[in-house]
Amino acid sequence: MPSSPTKNLEIFDNPAPARDYQIHMEIPEFTCLCPKTGQPDFATLILDYIADEKCIELKSLKLYIWSYRNEATFHEAVTNRIVDDLVAVLEPRYLRLTAKFYVRGGIFTNVVVEHRKSGWQPLPPVDLAKFGSQPPIRE
Q1: What does the pLDDT look like over 33-90, one tens digit per residue?
Q2: Which residues fall in the annotated binding site for substrate?
Q3: I need a labelling partner for 64 at 20 to 30 A (CA). Which of 15, 41, 77, 99 fits?
Q4: Which residues are catalytic?
Q5: Can you give the residue ranges of every domain in the chain?
Q6: How many CA atoms lie within 13 A of 54 on its CB side?
């Protein structure tokens, strides 16, 4: 049976809840519809989070993201809604979603939304390497 889009986000227990570690995901195939024209809007979503007790299950995240394909919504609204939904199920220590929308009318739009759990303080940063853009396939 083929998969269908859904708003149901599944989670699993964090395998290392005593440690702060970054989970980084790039979702290059996000689509929704422009509420003014009905034309498709395309974006790459970049999700970074530090889990507390729960982590997001990837297939459910894929089906959740797919559920926006036929929804008319502004870039700012959809980015905030995705963060609200993820925070509701994950209750992460920290979460940032960057939505990098492709050009529309000569304008690129980036929307960045962050959440911090009350009382959580990040450890001092140790920047050993940064994540660069990932090609759609690995060699």
Answers
A1: 999 999 999 999 999 999 999 999 999 999 999 999 999 999 999 999 999 999 999 9
A2: 56-58, 75-76
A3: 15
A4: 34, 41
A5: 22-116
A6: 14
